[in-house]
Amino acid sequence: MMDHQGRTDSIFAINLPIGTIPFVLAAIFVAAIVSIPPAQAQTITVLHSFTAHGDGSTPIGGVTLDRAGNLYGTTNGDESGSPSTVFKMSHAGSGWILNTLYTFNHPNDATDVYAGVVFGPDGALYGTSYAGGQNSLGAVFALQPPATACKSASCPWTSTTLYSFEYGNDGIHPDLGNLVFDSAGNIYGTTYSGGTYVRGTVFKLARSGNGWTESLLYSFTGGSDGDFPYNGVAFDSAGNLYGTTSEGGSYGYGTVYELSPSGSGWTETTLYSFTGGDDGVNPIGSVAIDAPGNLYGTASSGGSGGVGTAWELSPSNGGWAFTLLHSFSGRTYPGPSATPTLDAAGNIYGTSTYTGEGFGEAFKLTSTGDGWTYTSYDFDGSNAHAPSCSVALDANGNLYGTAPLGGTEDWGVVWEITP
Q1: Other C-beta atoms within 10 Å of 228: how many?
Q2: How far apart are CA 283 and CA 300, in angstroms?
Q3: Which residue among 15, 243, 247, 257 is buried most deeply as judged by most CB within 10 Å?
Q4: What is the pLDDT of residue 19?
Q5: Residue 4's pLDDT is what?
């Protein structure tokens, strides 16, 4: 992933099939070798700088908040041997303290944990890994808290591998997307590759006795339906699933898709194919859905600024209407690479990997009625560098996230932005 000297392979370069998204690889080397002037200081606090000594390193997947305001996240590890972890951050006086809940170092454990963790209906934390599991092709795992109250500062949780991908039609290599649950407690997610056509899948895990059974909801073909979904899926109020593919579609630049329950199966509909023009190129993040059913997302490149876009898809006359909300600008790409976050007022939040002054940014898009106002919080490389996560919001409007580089030892950080 990213080494201690700041050289970057990027999450996107690791998983790419030969010949796909070549602009990403080029951008990685540009970002690693170009000397960039210091960015203007922003309103940002580093809550934790990772050291690769017990606390992990290279956090990618962002954080999840519980009702008490604690933060939960993952670290991917690094080439020097620091394993993947799941951590919790809690308030301690005027600061924060990090506890490692679990370190993935047991046989058949998850490895290369790119995505974050989310709470399931039972209070456990659920997540995926790009590799690891029984077949080293990725896994779905759950972490349970200790059965009794913890009386020490460090209380490890218990990890269970719910499913190990097999390189069959089930798919392989879940990548960046967080898992989602339906009202019955079933789990839904995506794999970046594998499936019938080796172009990625959408899968479901359902409880079966004391275990879980995996079923394939859809296998992408690489045609007009798209291929290589990096991120996960989102439910609407009617039980339909929505997501993006990073490539494929009518023009080869990615798609937005819908999966609708149909009898005993699911029907896939391509809602939008990116053209490679001002609408953007290669969506990496998935979609956020508001109450009326509008979809919001980003593209990691393209647009008038060349480094990505933010967009909206709205139901319109039996179809979907595309609206460009913002074109990002900056010194290099990729730009926004995570699923956006919506607040109750309909504002849009996200991160962009290398835009701004070149170290990445957090951003907010505010609706003005006839357009959108763009606010950027530029990172400076020391407080954070190359964020690829969704933004978490607390009840006070504070923003939280991670970056895989930056911090006192350049192993990545957890950050907070206070409005």
Answers
A1: 26
A2: 6
A3: 243
A4: 35
A5: 39
Place of tokens 């990090």: 98
For residue 247, list its beta bridge partners. 227
Q: Report the top-level CATH class of 10-417.
A: mainly beta
Query: Could you write out the DSSP letters of every residue in 97-161?
Result: EEEEEEE--STT-EES--S--EE-TTS-EEEEESEETTTTS-EEEEEE--SS---SS----EEEE
Number of other CB atoms surrounding residue 54 within 10 Å: 12
Do you know the residue count of the chain? 419
Q: Which residues of the chain have pLDDT under 50?
A: 1-42
Residue 229 phi, psi dihedral angles, 5° rounding: -80, 115
**Backbone phi, psi, residue 15, to 5°:** -100, 0
Calculate the alpha carbon distances from 390 to 223, 314, 340 in Å: 28, 22, 6
Q: What is the DSSP letter of 418?
A: -
Q: What's at 166, amino acid-wise?
A: E
pLDDT at 1: 39
Contact assessment for residue 356 and residue 336, using Cβ atoms and an 8 Å cutoff = no
* CA 181/CA 363 separation, integer angstroms: 28
Q: In angstroms, rounded to a whole number, what is the distance separating the alpha carbons of residues 262 and 289?
A: 21
Query: How far from the centroid of its chain's Cα atoms is residue 376's Cα?
Result: 20
H, E, C per residue of 19-74? CCCHHHHHHHHHHHHCCCCCCCCCCCEEEEECCCCCCCCCCCCCEEECCCCCEEEE
Please count the other Cβ atoms lying within 10 Å of the Cβ belonging to residue 370: 5
- Half-sphere exposure of residue 323, counting CA atoms within 13 Å on the CB side? 13
Q: Quote the pTM value.
A: 0.89
- Return d(Cα 356, Cα 338) in angstroms, integer: 16
CB 404 within 8 A of CB 35: no
The token duo for 338 is 């995570």
pLDDT tens for each residue of 112-138: 999 999 999 999 999 999 999 999 999
Q: Which residues contact 166 (CB under 8 A, 6 or more apart)?
A: 135, 137, 172
> Which residue matches tokens 């109750």?
344
Strand partners, 403: 413
DSSP 291-359: TT--EEEEESBBSTTSB-EEEEEEEETTEEEEEEEEE--BSSS--B-S--EE-TT--EEEEESS-BTTT
- Distance (Å, rounded) from C-alpha 348 to C-alpha 363? 8
- Count of C-beta atoms within a 10 Å radius of residue 363: 25
Instruction: Give the pLDDT score at 331.
Output: 72
